[in-house]
Amino acid sequence: MDIKKIREKFPIFKGGDGGKRLVYLDSAATSQRADMVIDSVHDFYSRGNASVHRGVYELSERATGLYEQARHKVAKFINAADPSEIVFTSGTTESINFVADAWAREHFKEGDEIVVTQAEHHANLLPWQRVAQRTGAKLRFIEVDQETFFLKDPPKDLINKNTKLVSLIHISNVLGNVWEEGLLESVIKRAHEVGARVLLDCAQSIAHKKIDVQALGVDFLACSAHKMCGPTGVGALYIKKDLHDAVEPYQVGGSMVHDAEYETANWQPAPMKFEAGTPAIAQVIGFGAAVDFFNEHVDFVELHNHEAKLCAQLVDGLNSIGGITILGNQCDMKMCGHLAAFVVDGIHAHDVSAMLGMRGVGVRAGHHCVQPLAKLIGVEASTRASLYMYNESEDIEVLVRELRDLIKTFKEA
Fold first, then answer.
1. Are 372 and 118 in contact (CB under 8 A)?
2. Each residue's pLDDT tens digit in the chain (413 positions)?
3. Is 369 a catalytic residue?
4. How would DSSP label each residue in 168-201?
5. What are the C-alpha distances in Å from 15 to residues 30, 363, 376?
6. How do beta strands 163-169 and 113-117 pair?
7. Which in 73, 216, 235, 310 has the greatest CB count within 10 A?
8. Side by side, which strands form the sheet with 113-117?
């Protein structure tokens, strides 16, 4: 991978504001878009706009072809066994809510158990809280080791005959990697041994590592396109084929009906069963273009090495300033990280982010939608710098220099 050539494929980095370099370090929230993704969306709206699946005229058939090609691309990208296992949603949050409302609430009862981790994003916690409240099921947690910031190997009885679902974050949006080698695979295996289903939240991982749903052995997987250079407002839900009949439609309406009467209706087979109404056609096509971009330009091994090198520079740079606490396992971050969340002594994270923003550096601040985790580790808010394929060493140099200067200025004031 030639990082300079990769960066040139992202129009937002060309020219900048008055020639000033854009230092964008918030890709964990949303990535920038490659030119071929932008072009695919523009091309659809300007030359190919039509609804899908309904029309038998050329424009509609072409749109349907592009839409379904995107489904095949995403299926192949995560090694799904069949394209019908890919359902397009608005993103990871809707995908998880889909499983919670259309499957879990239909099948769970009092005494059933749902296992999640203490590191979950709200999107993979709040839906299960609601399922538990409405069905009488119980939430149980794989704990975070507050010294190593890895997840603890759960006690054998945590996943048991009452466990119906194990829903896990793949990579934390605050701590980065939270799984020691082999533990994720062990937890998935234990879940299946007791007959539980497994959902994997890949919002943070899909953009940084190769995902193979068959090798992982998961039953559901959720991801978003906008974190992997695709459009906002679209994502994918992988539903293993043997669960298609067990999962109810999340929404009902047009397109997904096989036959309707005034009193009853039945559904099309998956994936149509799960995609009611006119879908986000342009966004889905853009999602397919993002997969094309990865296939043509990204080597995941080289991406891992590039990000880890930058993350090591970031960790060392933050530590060189003093008065900064980094959240996460620093040794692991330097070997395989792509983000670092940190707290500056005496300065609120929002102030740090705002002041860096005025200096042309884009970072994130807040609890990052993991309030329970933040409370667990005793942090009200943190600042997060996250890295991606288009970042260079110079971005880290600018961040560290500006951060050092603003801390000095703040203390003097």
1. yes
2. 899 999 999 999 987 566 688 999 999 999 999 999 999 999 999 999 999 998 999 999 999 999 999 999 999 999 999 999 999 999 999 999 999 999 999 999 999 999 999 999 999 999 999 999 999 999 999 999 999 999 999 999 999 999 999 999 999 999 999 999 999 999 999 999 999 999 999 999 999 999 999 999 999 999 999 999 999 999 999 999 999 999 999 999 999 999 999 999 999 999 999 999 999 999 999 999 999 999 999 999 999 999 999 999 999 999 999 999 999 999 999 999 999 999 999 999 999 999 999 999 999 999 999 999 999 999 999 999 999 999 999 999 999 999 999 999 988 87
3. yes
4. EESSBTTTB----TTHHHHHHHHHHHTT-EEEEE
5. 21, 20, 43
6. parallel
7. 235
8. 86-89, 235-239, 220-224, 197-201, 163-169, 113-117, 138-142
**Checking DSSP bridges between strand 138-142 and strand 113-117, what pairing results, if any?**
parallel
Residue holding tokens 């878009």?
33
Closest alpha carbon to 399 in 357, 346, 365, 337:
357
Which 8-state DSSP code applies to residue 144?
A: B
Question: Are the C-beta atoms of residues 95 and 68 closer than 8 Å to each other?
Answer: no
290 is written with which tokens? 């993002």
Judge contact between 323 and 404, C-beta under 8 A.
Answer: no
* Helix, strand or coil, per DSSP, at residue 116: strand
The token duo for 168 is 């896990």
Parallel/antiparallel/unpaired status of strands 382-386 and 364-366: antiparallel
pTM of the model: 0.97
- How far apart (Å, rounded) are the C-alpha atoms in residues 90 and 385? 25
Please give the distance of CA 189 from its chain centroid, rounded to a whole number.
23
Letter for the amino acid at 174?
V
Residue of 333, 303, 336, 306 whose CA lies nearest to 318: 333
Paired tokens of 95: 């995908």
Owner of token pair 């396992």: 329
Residue 257 CA to residue 270 CA, distance in Å, equals 11
166: nearest Cα among 121, 192, 129, 197 = 197
Choosing from 223, 229, 311, 369, the catalytic residue is 369
Task: Check: CB of residue 386 under 8 Å from CB of residue 26.
Answer: yes
